[in-house]
Amino acid sequence: MPARLALGALALCASAGAWAGIPTFCERPQDIGAAGQDRVLRFAGAVKQELERSGAPVALVARAGLDLSRFGLLYSHAGIALKDNPGGRWAVRQLYYACDESRPRLFDQGMAGFALGADAPGNGHIALVFPAPQDSASLEAAALDKRRALALLGGQYSANAYAFGTRYQNCNQWVAELLASAWGRLDAAQGADGTRSRAQAWLRAQDYAQEPVRLPAHWMVFAAQFVPLLHIGDHPLDDLQALALHVSVPDAIEALVQRRTPDARRVELCHDTRRIVVHRGWDKLGADCAPLPGDEVIAL
């Protein structure tokens, strides 16, 4: 695989606007056609139905936006779905990279648009995590607090940002730091770097991102300097030499929630061209979207 494409696979949530999460480096996605759009919209409808059934005001939501299988990952892009989001019921509040401005921004996106952000519209995966009620209430308040949310927004974007540095930030890191601010009861009045540093200190104390993203080969580290929106200057040298980067990914966020509140609930939905699978529980579906025993299957 050419260096640019291989490193592009590590570009978590690297694009902008309504296409947030697609690693096109600011190019528009291809038209998926009417049949593909209809299938994805039906999938988004099933996701919203699960959100409504939950009785919760908020959910952590993750999407499989691109192929990260060579890194042992399925999900690439996380956000926060809010029942009472001013941008629309269950719209996803998330960080995206605004290509026209060359800077990260916060963006509210409807669930249909979020689901359409998958790199391969013929199949898709979305995971929902519902924290315990007390944690849901504090997370909802933090996510809807614009001052707090913006105080945690970094000034420079890197798709593979180091999870414990303030030089760069990716979309999943903003979500993790918002969780830290809400659940650690951190004051958001110290300026962006100070606020983010305290959030990351709380995350470290919770053993966040303890499992690194492992790179298959050393040449990827060298090639990263030639790929837009990827940076290695913020990662510790020991991590680079070990090919083990501590990057915020949806799996790390889910693990944090599960460790904090074992009674938190998880629902995973996937689709291919024939069916939608709804799986409830912390054991995970595979990339092939094969149902597990007891899963709900909806024919397309």
Q: How confident overall, as mean pLDDT?
A: 87
Question: What Rg is obtained from the alpha carbons, in whole angstroms?
Answer: 18 Å
Bulk shape? globular
Poorly predicted runs of 5 or more residues: 1-9, 14-25
Distance between the termini: 34 Å
User: How would you characterize the largest beta sheet?
Assistant: 8 strands, antiparallel
Strands of the largest sheet, in order across it? 4-3-2-1-5-8-9-10
Number of helical regions:
10
Order of helices and strands: HHEEEEHEHHHHEHHEHEEE
- What portion of the residues fall into strands of 2 or more residues? 15-25%
The number of domains is: 1
Question: How many runs of DSSP E, i.e. beta strands?
Answer: 10
Helicity, as a percent range: 25-40%
- What structural class is derived from the secondary structure elements? alpha+beta
Lay out the secondary structure.
Layout: H1 3-8, H2 33-54, E1 58-63, E2 77-82, E3 91-98, E4 103-109, H3 111-115, E5 124-130, H4 133-144, H5 146-151, H6 171-183, H7 192-205, E6 213-214, H8 219-223, H9 237-241, E7 244-245, H10 250-260, E8 265-271, E9 275-280, E10 296-299
Antiparallel strand pairs: 1-2, 1-5, 2-3, 3-4, 5-8, 6-7, 8-9, 9-10
Q: Can you walk through the features of this model?
A:
The chain is an alpha+beta fold. It has one domain. 33% of the residues lie in helices and 18% in strands. The protein has ten helices and ten strands. It has helices spanning 3-8, 33-54, 111-115, 133-144, 146-151, 171-183, 192-205, 219-223, 237-241, 250-260; strands spanning 58-63, 77-82, 91-98, 103-109, 124-130, 213-214, 244-245, 265-271, 275-280, 296-299. A hairpin with a 3-residue loop joins strand 8 (265-271) and strand 9. Helix 4 packs across helix 6 and helix 6 (171-183) packs across helix 7 (192-205).
